[in-house]
């Protein structure tokens, strides 16, 4: 029994899908029967929900998704039967699906169909007319579907061509400004070009429809990746980095057991107040004790001694006080706590020291300079800011800047696996609350 549904909102809005399988996996993971947009539908988990046929009914089952599955506004806690007209939302703010049919028991419809068939079998002439009519309708429907598919494919290819040309222009401008993003754009353009060639070849050869559909889905994913990378590249990285880099600092830590480590921090005021992560000064387990702390601002030869003011375990933040400063120090322009300006898809810039040596020595003898990496806000979950980034992940404590140069978050780690891996940061609201606790 075929399940038919329409995608109402999100990156796949407008699509109508039909499934003949008994189980339909819904999510952002590659291989899902109904794969939502892996870049734009960020509220959808990799394996979010499952639509299951049981006898003559279809049921929706949540797979422990991060943001939940909702049916007609009610959260799905247990398997729930579906009926035509019902709406399934993947995450409270995620894409919405409308069940078109059959969705539920079809016993009455089957009975009516059986009675109709008995009447048709009463006359051979009527049956032949019906068969000819059905064949003609199927041929017209097939030709119409083929035409619609060709139009959709042409639109996808045209969109990909435009993005590839734009990414080529951006790549030349990014060279040397943002670590990793230029290479990511190159890789995405090569992948999109190869998928386009494969899709054109199979289309010309009237290849396997399932293989064509898989290639088309992969091209959609590659095109979405290009689009997201170009959002990240839209920041004026050169001027933004020049403004905020002086406030970013290399943090040196020596623990009581003699172990040494380095991380990133940034000045929130011109009188030596510097923020970093708690685990930087207390170790991953939070039980170590730092006996010496040093702060070296980006591009500066001077390493200043520092003292630990306080830490907060919940937000994983630490506040340091730089000692013996002469004339003050550069500080970040401000902290952005307005979530409405930091929605999913907003470009951000990260500055940190991912490759610094615990001794402070560099192979080329140059002064340490904070490295710029680009990213796009992926979403928010469990009080954390999630970022899709390109290039080095960056040292703990790296500030995350919005397009105005204000701090949007503080990097403290990474999460996910393989192509689902992303950076995780303390949001600006938690940072401001932590700073306010020192007043």
Automatic annotation (TrEMBL):
Coiled coil: 185-232
Membrane-spanning residues: 119-139
Alphabetized UniProt keyword annotations: Coiled coil, Membrane, Transmembrane, Transmembrane helix
InterPro entries: Cell_Proc_Reg/RNA_Proc, FHA_dom, Peptidase_S1_PA, Peptidase_S1_PA_chymotrypsin, SMAD_FHA_dom_sf
Keyword check for Transmembrane: yes
Pfam families: FHA (PF00498), Trypsin_2 (PF13365)
SUPFAM superfamilies membership: SMAD/FHA domain, Trypsin-like serine proteases
Domain FHA: 24-76
Keyword Transmembrane helix part of the UniProt annotation: yes
Name by which UniProt lists this protein: Trypsin-like peptidase domain-containing protein
Organism: Gaopeijia maritima
Lineage of the organism: Bacteria, Pseudomonadati, Gemmatimonadota, Longimicrobiia, Gaopeijiales
């Amino acid at each position: 029994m075929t399940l038919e549904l329409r995608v109402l909102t999100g990156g796949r809005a407008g699509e109508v899908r039909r499934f003949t399988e008994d189980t339909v996996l819904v999510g952002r993971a590659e291989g899902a029967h109904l794969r939502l947009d892996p870049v734009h539908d960020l509220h959808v988990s990799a394996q979010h929900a499952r639509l299951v046929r049981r006898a003559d009914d279809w049921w929706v089952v949540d797979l422990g998704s991060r943001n939940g599955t909702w049916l007609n506004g009610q959260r799905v806690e247990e398997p729930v039967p579906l009926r035509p007209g019902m709406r399934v939302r993947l995450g409270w703010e995620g894409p919405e699906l409308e069940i078109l049919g059959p969705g539920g028991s079809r016993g009455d419809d089957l009975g009516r169909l059986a009675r109709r068939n008995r009447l048709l079998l009463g006359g051979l002439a009527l049956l032949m007319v019906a068969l000819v009519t059905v064949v003609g309708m199927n041929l017209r429907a097939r030709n119409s579907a083929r035409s619609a598919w060709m139009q959709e494919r042409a639109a996808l290819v045209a969109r990909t061509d435009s993005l590839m040309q734009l990414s080529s222009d951006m790549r030349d401008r990014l060279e040397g400004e943002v670590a990793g993003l230029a290479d990511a754009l190159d890789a995405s353009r090569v992948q999109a070009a190869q998928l386009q060639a494969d899709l054109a070849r199979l289309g010309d050869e009237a290849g396997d429809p399932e293989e064509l559909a898989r290639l088309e889905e992969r091209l959609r994913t590659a095109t979405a990746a290009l689009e997201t990378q170009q959002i990240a590249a839209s920041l004026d990285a050169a001027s933004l980095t020049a403004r905020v880099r002086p406030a970013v600092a290399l943090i040196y830590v020596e623990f009581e057991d003699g172990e040494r480590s380095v991380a990133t921090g940034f000045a929130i005021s011109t009188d030596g107040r510097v923020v970093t992560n708690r685990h930087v000064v207390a170790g991953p387990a939070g039980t170590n004790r730092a006996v010496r702390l040093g702060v070296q601002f980006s591009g500066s030869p001077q390493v200043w001694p520092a003292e630990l003011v306080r830490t907060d375990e919940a937000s994983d933040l630490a506040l340091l006080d730089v000692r013996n400063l002469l004339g003050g120090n550069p500080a970040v322009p401000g902290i952005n706590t307005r979530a409405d300006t930091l929605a999913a898809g907003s470009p951000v810039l990260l500055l940190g020291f991912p490759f610094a040596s615990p001794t402070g020595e560099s192979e080329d003898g140059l002064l340490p300079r904070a490295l710029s990496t680009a990213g796009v806000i992926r979403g928010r979950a469990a009080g954390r800011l999630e970022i899709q980034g390109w290039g080095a992940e960056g040292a703990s404590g790296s500030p995350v800047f919005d397009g105005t140069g204000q701090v949007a978050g503080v990097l403290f780690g990474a999460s996910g696996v393989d192509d689902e891996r992303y950076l995780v940061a303390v949001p600006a609201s938690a940072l401001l609350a932590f700073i306010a606790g020192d007043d």
